[in-house]
Amino acid sequence: MFFKTLVKTQSQTIFNKEIEYWNQLINCSDHRKILEKIARKRTYNTSLPWEDALQIAYLKIVEAILAGKFSGQTIEDFYRWSAKVAKNSIVDCIYQEKNRYCMSLDQYVSETDVSLLETLSNKSNLWEYLEIEDLALKAAQIIENLDQYYPKQKYKDLWLGRVQGKTQTQLAQEMGLTQSTISKRWKELENRLLEEMEF
């Protein structure tokens, strides 16, 4: 029992000395500057701060040392190896960071069969687009009400024809009216619509 404890204590002491040795190598000011330069260079124009990247690099170097992955003979070998480990760990981290926030525009909006791409507006100002859409919905409701209040005027048919891009002549033929009557009714509808919308 005593022998096992002694061996365990000695191996822990050796392990602690090794860790101290590796920390001194890693924290050498010249090597630290090289690792900092790698972190700054690799994180330029990314969302990852270079300080975080440097910390990640240090952790990966320590993990690799503890896993016994360093097989070089000299201090220069260690510095080259640790610089490669740092660079690769930072590149991996940046790659993971980029992938974390990427959403496919082909994904569907939850509980619908509409893709995200279809929901994007080609307008530069989304608020303007939403305001126009809100006004269009309000106008459609007002026209529905006007059509019920003035059924002989056929405002709803007139509106739908206009939305479909039909000319006054086409609407007149479809509704059995003259083109001048369609023109007058359209002006009536515009005036009543503007009045109801309080413009």
Provide keyphrases for this structure:
9 helices; 199 residues; 2 domains
What does this structure look like?
The structure is a single chain. The protein has 199 residues and is mainly α. The chain is built from nine helices and no strands. Helix 6 (126-149) crosses helix 9. The model is unreliable at 1-8 (pLDDT under 50).
Question: What is the first-to-last residue Cα distance?
Answer: 95 Å
User: Can you tell me the residue ranges where pLDDT is under 50 for at least 5 consecutive residues?
Assistant: 1-8
Calculate the mean pLDDT score and round it: 77
How many structural domains?
Answer: 2
Query: Nearest-angstrom radius of gyration?
Result: 36 Å
Summarize the structure.
Helix content is 73%, strand content 0%. The chain has 199 residues and is mainly alpha-helical. The chain folds into two domains: 2-100, no CATH class; 123-196, no CATH class.
Question: How are the SSEs ordered, and which strands pair?
Answer:
Blueprint: H1 2-26, H2 29-43, H3 50-66, H4 75-100, H5 116-119, H6 126-149, H7 155-163, H8 168-175, H9 179-196
Helix pairs in contact: 2-3, 2-4, 3-4, 6-9, 8-9
